[in-house]
Amino acid sequence: MKISIDARGINLYSGTGIGTYTENIVKNLVNIDTLNNYHVFWSGNNYESIKKDNCKIVMTSKKHQRFFEDYYFPENISKENIDIYHMPQNGIGFSEDISCKKIVTIHDLIPYVMPETVGRSYLLKFLKEMPIIMGGSDGIITVSEFSKQDILKFFPIDEKKIFVTPLAADKKYTPLDKLHCKNILKTIYNLTKPFILYLGGFSERKNVASAITAFSKVYKDLNKDYDLVIVGGYRDPSQNLVKLVHQLKMESHVVFTGFVPEEHLPIFYNSCDTFIYPSFYEGFGLPPLEAMNCGTPVIASNLTSIPEVVGDGGILIDPYDISEMSFAIGNLLGNESLRSELSSKALIRASEFSWENTARNTLKVYESIYNNETVDK
Description:
Elements: E1 2-6, H1 9-12, H2 17-32, E2 37-43, E3 55-60, H3 65-79, E4 84-87, E5 101-106, H4 110-113, H5 120-136, E6 139-142, H6 145-154, E7 162-164, H7 178-189, E8 195-199, H8 208-218, E9 227-231, H9 236-247, E10 254-258, H10 265-271, E11 274-277, H11 286-293, E12 298-301, H12 306-310, E13 315-317, H13 322-333, H14 336-350, H15 355-370
Parallel strand pairs: 1-2, 1-4, 2-3, 4-5, 5-6, 6-7, 8-9, 8-11, 9-10, 11-12, 12-13
Helix pairs in contact: 2-15, 7-10, 8-13, 11-14
């Protein structure tokens, strides 16, 4: 097969779930697949890691994206006799003029389920284009069984057209020397106390306010002087959280780090005593898996796709129940043997996910669509 992938998202959406997903499937596909040829649309630099004999890089510009999507890509795909064209970023760039078989990855349907949590321009674009993408694709990849059911709920399409390929955590998320990690955070971020960690964005659906409120109700009863450390760049939603901390008089126990470079995230995961992720909605939810890969005990939401990821490797709580969340925090932070047990379970659970497996499952989707096959569920 000649397989084309729109990999512009690796640089255009760097640091996001879509950017991470695109980068890892492209890198792993060109490494594990020696039978097929890859034709990769690229924007920006840093393509050396995928530049191989079986992979041709086609440079595009960060500007004039509509020109490339509507005219250049269809023409180039036709000229190169491409068999499969994969658009990993929720079908962005989909064109009905693409002559080969079309596969899209739909990560979630947040604009349909929680429209109040996304920007208006993205919402309108998503709602306008998604029915065309769903109807015009030959195959749809999604990242969890939950997301598959969401797609079927909103779109009257054949279930066999949808393929589930779970995501994975990057290899840099692994157990590290905890004392060394804590010393790094002490030096760079002035973090001197044991802490519970949150990272993963500040959208309202992430429910960070509930994590702060739950921590405020239990921190005085803990056997150590704990902080809640919240990682992420200062944007408008985070300012509401800062106000909440002031209202709760928790300024001395809640730390906002601001932007943290990606290479420091494994250090945070390894340094904390537990990671909390009370999100209302996730198509997959990588942060809990990243924490679990580090052997960190996890408290996470029991909604949407998150239980598929965490399994028995963490504590699942109702994100709408502040009391339940507070109890889980107090119980875990006050019980060292439970933390040790969950750390072991987290590592076992996390080992079931790998980007190589994701790439192999993606290749199976390509082969099925190319051979006019579907998956029987």
